Amino acid sequence: MKNLKLNNRQAKAIETKAKIYDSADQLFRTYGFDHVSVDSIVEKAGVSKGSFYVHFDSKNSLISALATDFVARLDLDYKSFLESFPPNAMASEILLSIVGKIVDVLTLTIGYNSMKIIYEALITRTINTDPIVGYDRELYKMFNEIIKKGIDQQEFQTEMTIDTITKHCIMAIRGITYEWCIRYPDFDLKSEVLIHFKILLNGLKKQ
Amino acid sequence: MKNLKLNNRQAKAIETKAKIYDSADQLFRTYGFDHVSVDSIVEKAGVSKGSFYVHFDSKNSLISALATDFVARLDLDYKSFLESFPPNAMASEILLSIVGKIVDVLTLTIGYNSMKIIYEALITRTINTDPIVGYDRELYKMFNEIIKKGIDQQEFQTEMTIDTITKHCIMAIRGITYEWCIRYPDFDLKSEVLIHFKILLNGLKKQ
DNA sequence: CAAGTATAATGACCATAGTCAGTGACTTAA
DNA sequence: TTAAGTCACTGACTATGGTCATTATACTTG
Description:
- The structure is a homodimer.
- By secondary structure, the first copy, chain A, is mainly alpha-helical.
- The termini of chain A are far apart.
- Chain A is 74% helix and 0% strand.
- Chain A folds into 2 domains: 1-56, Homeodomain-like (Arc Repressor Mutant, subunit A, Orthogonal Bundle), CATH 1.10.10.60; 57-204, Tetracycline Repressor, domain 2, CATH 1.10.357.
- Chain A has helices spanning 8-31, 38-45, 49-55, 59-83, 91-110, 112-124, 130-133, 138-152, 162-183, 189-204.
- In chain A, α5 (91-110) crosses α6 and α5 runs antiparallel to α10 (189-204).
- Chain A has 10 helices and no strands.
- Chain A binds chain B through residues 116, 119-120, 122-125, 129, 133, 160, 164, 168, 171-172, 174-176, 178-179, 181-183, 192, 195-196, 198-204, and chain B through 116, 119-120, 122-124, 129, 133, 160, 164, 168, 171-172, 174-176, 178-179, 181-183, 192, 195-196, 198-204.
- The structure holds a DNA duplex.
């Protein structure tokens, strides 16, 4: 267990990190990632460049931190969305709805530029990927519940484990989102995801 | 139609471009894209940095050229593999075989490091991705043929167009390969791809 | 052949991400 | 209180992708 009491020095450090984080957030929202330099971030924050690299491994690491925090908040959103379904709803319908919801968030709320940077950071491994791809992520638990429901209701086949199906569903979303990132703007993420899930759900059906 | 006769100056220019291309190819294979600078390429090629930018718009443009040539060679290999199947073979079996073949090439011949570099380049660099992801790529034509055969033989449903199914199959391979790149080494590409295609093929079957 | 033109090639230069040895304010232990 | 030690912080510096005014030289034309 870490010591929760902070001394002045540690408090100052957290404050410095927050100044950098907030300045970057504002600048990125105004000018976009590509048009904001590390120099301009530290100037706005009123700290030195070296200080930036004390608190963040890289510019991308900061961007990923911003986006990851945002995405983590969204899992809560997905969860409340999921809880709004009646208990007798069909699993395949819930699945399609939540997938549609997720895709809407990716395209409309987060947006292409941020998604591209996250997916880039995931593959270059310049960040801790666990909050996004780790099987502990709340998103996996939610999908797990839905799939379990589908099997219990005899909608889905039982040839594969719940975990396997869950992983493949989320992997499919991620894969199509990657495709979106490399084909943008000539690719409609939502319709392609829905088509893909139509095939997948058909393949998962009992019989 | 361009003039096919080259004068000395044009011949020298082509030679210079080739020197840059070959030097880059060797260096990239040895050290990877990220660890080879433009300076080191032009030094090895024995030309100036400015000369590099006469022949290539950017470092990424050069990478793109290399990737284009590489992919073209791969597709030839896949094609000859495809032609080895008897005419009466089932489409789903051919599909599974070629998918297995592709995955073997990705994992064994190309390898994780190079694949990561390519997938990273696709999403990060502003390279011309067309030779790899463009629907004109030979790979799409090959898949198209197989899917068409499956529909003609009444194996597959006709709810979606051949093109749609083709695109979603290749997108699935690419998506799972992306997942492999971000989870390596805790992910068995071949078995996951085969599981995913089992679901997909089941979902594509007639009835 | 001489003068003019086109273009391949040059390398000094710029912008920006990232580094690191050094500084001094703060913490800790006597 | 004070000396020793820690660590957030600094900013000059490096590395590298890319630019551009200039130069060298092959080609063209009169």
